[in-house]
Amino acid sequence: MTATDPWIRRFFPSPGAPVQLVCLPHAGGSASFFRPVAQALNPGVEVLAVQYPGRQDRHREPMIDTIGGLADQVCRAVTGAVDRPFALFGHSMGAILAFEVAVRLEQAGRVAERVFVSGRRAPSCHRDEQVHRRDDAGIIAELRALSGTDQQVFGDDELMRMVLPAVRNDYRAAETYVCTTDHRLRSPVTALSGDDDPKTSQDEIRAWSEHTRGAFERERYPGGHFFLVDHAPDVIRLIRERLAQPAAAPR
């Protein structure tokens, strides 16, 4: 692994890859979530996984509890790290962050080849969710329900004490997010979802089409919020195939 910026992790550097994929983790997640993706896509796609502050090797740094604040910092890091055609992939909270980063990059003259948004309703779809206001037991119940956390973690009190502040912070960022831009991306958008995900409906996934002037497609998989873990080979194949295609012209 190499890193020239605390925000970016290159687990498998591939300077000869024709395209880079910037990956943005879910609430409470870290860059290491995408290490298997980086390995699977190497050497044809170089994965740049984003590491948010307040976790793992950045655990001593102050966390950022707004999507806008995160997007500003990630945009700066991506601008310095990307040196060829690139795409964005975000899961859950990472999906709306990918959208906001893509908006900022387009406004600066850099257009992603494609934006993959996974397990998250469109920015224009709001739900009144207050998980970040729950006590620790309530947040743990939420994590258990979504089945995205190794069950052994719940039995490790010390590890849970380390993880919960980042989870609460990120839920606050995602749940207080309000889309304030009418910018429609020039990039094509691929929206991925689980057919039994309590966090987003198929109508909310379809609404992503209103946030791009490029091509839009939906890919639906069996499973819940973390369907992409159970269907990793299929998701990775989709990413590889889409990044091998020329981007469609925006509408």
Task: Give an overview of the whole structure.
The protein is of the alpha/beta class and 251 residues long. Helices cover 35% and strands 14% of the residues. The chain has 8 helices and 7 strands; from the N terminus they run E-E-H-E-H-E-H-E-H-H-E-H-E-H-H. The protein is globular. The N and C termini lie far apart (39 Å). The model has no long low-confidence stretch (mean pLDDT 91).
Features:
single chain, 251 residues, alpha/beta, 7-stranded mixed sheet, 8 helices, 7 strands, 35% helix, 14% strand, globular, TesA-like, TEII, Thioesterase
What secondary-structure arrangement, pairings included, does this model have?
Layout: E1 8-9, E2 19-24, H1 35-41, E3 45-50, H2 67-81, E4 86-91, H3 93-107, E5 115-118, H4 136-146, H5 157-175, E6 189-194, H6 202-206, E7 216-221, H7 227-230, H8 232-243
Strand content: 5-15%
List low-pLDDT spans: none
Shape: globular
Q: Find the count of extended strands (DSSP E, 2+ residues).
A: 7
**Element-level helix/strand string:** EEHEHEHEHHEHEHH
Largest sheet: 7 strands, mixed
Rg is 17 Å
Secondary structural class: alpha/beta
Task: Kindly report the spatial arrangement of strands forming the biggest sheet.
Answer: 1-3-2-4-5-6-7
Q: N-to-C terminal Cα separation, in Å? A: 39 Å
Number of helices: 8
Instruction: Give the mean pLDDT.
Output: 91
Helix content: 25-40%
